[in-house]
Amino acid sequence: MRKYNWSLLLLALLTYSTTKAQDEGTLSKMERVSTSKSFYLFGGPSYKFGGNNGDYCCGLNLEAGYLKRVNRILSIGPALSFTRFFYDESISDSFGDSDASGNNIYQVDGGYEVYVVYLEGGDLNFFSAGFNLKFDFIPYEEGKKISFYGIVKPYLLVSKRSELTASVELWFANENNPLDDPAGWSGGDEIDDLSPETPGLERWAADTEVTAGTNLGIGAELALPSGFGLFLQSTVGLTLPITYINTSEFSPTDAGYYHKDYPFVKKGFTTLNIAIGVAYHF
Fold first, then answer.
1. How far apart are CA 267 and CA 129, in angstroms?
2. Domains in the chain: how many in total?
3. Is residue 26 part of a domain?
4. CATH number for the domain including 127?
5. 188: left (phi over 0), alpha (psi -120 to 50) or beta
6. What is the pTM of this model?
7. pLDDT at 92
8. Neighbour tally for 150: CB within 10 Å
9. Residue 16 banded pLDDT, cuts 50, 70, 90
């Protein structure tokens, strides 16, 4: 009987020892992924980019947004932005400037009368609400001083175009003063002032359109003390068709001048945006 009791005791001790050894195995430290959040604000110049975006040169862009880190690669969050493009009167092909991308000279077909049109207004204001997806090229680490990233931002956009007006001059050329040599033209009298109040030009009034698009870009951020960061980024904005001034789309004859859509086209609008900004991480 006593031998039996000693056997049970030995078995219990062996079982306890084995269980304890399993419970106290090697511990591994799991890496913690930061779930930090951040607010950012930036601004900078914007330029028309690729193809022909009409009689516009440059403008400015501003954006504010919020980002939340999902993992070591991805951060997401909403953004609001404003972009303004100014109509550039110097872009028109005024008196034969071959470097200009627009056109403001319209020859009467088969004759020597020439209409010279000077447009004013037509500025573009873009208001957009988007959703940022920010991808770190190198997985995020606490304490890193410099990071590089890519941005994808689909957005809804409201385009507001300001009122357009114009003054028109009548010039004359002859065989001794070719149409491609305005220096010898005569005349130059103002014959018309055009505005949205002019019959048939109601489309020249200020207008609003709703469309959509996507920003694609890259950037770099420098970490500063107290949770701040300074960043520089460049994006290309691809906007679906909107209505804007593009005089180069119209024939340099009176047929172009009297075209029912002159001087507007409805096409996609592509921009290059450069911005410097500050972010606060918390």
1. 21
2. 1
3. no
4. 2.40.160.20
5. left
6. 0.82
7. 61
8. 15
9. low
Mean residue pLDDT across the chain: 86
Q: CA-CA distances (angstroms) from residue 175 to 9, 115, 178, 180, 181? A: 125, 18, 6, 11, 11
Containing H/E element for 128?
strand 124-136
Token couple for 6:
């000693």
* CB neighbour class for 8 (10 Å; exposed up to 12, middle 13-18, buried from 19): exposed
The strand order across the sheet containing 113-121 reads: 105-107, 113-121, 164-172, 186-194
Instruction: Give the pLDDT of residue 21.
Output: 45
Is 106 a member of any domain? yes
| pLDDT (0 to 100) of residue 203 | 95
Report yes or no on 20 lying in a domain: no
User: Residue 56: what residue type?
Assistant: Y
- Alpha carbons within 13 angstroms on the beta-carbon side of residue 209 total 18
List the domain range (segments joined by +) for residue 54. 34-281
Report whether pLDDT(70) > 50.
yes
Could you tell me if residue 8 is inside a domain? no
Burial class for 272, CB neighbours closer than 10 Å (0-12, 13-18, 19+):
middle
pLDDT, tens digit, for every residue of 212-255?
Answer: 999 999 999 999 989 999 999 999 999 999 999 999 899 989 99
Angle 248-249-250 (CA atoms, 0-180°, nearest 5)?
90
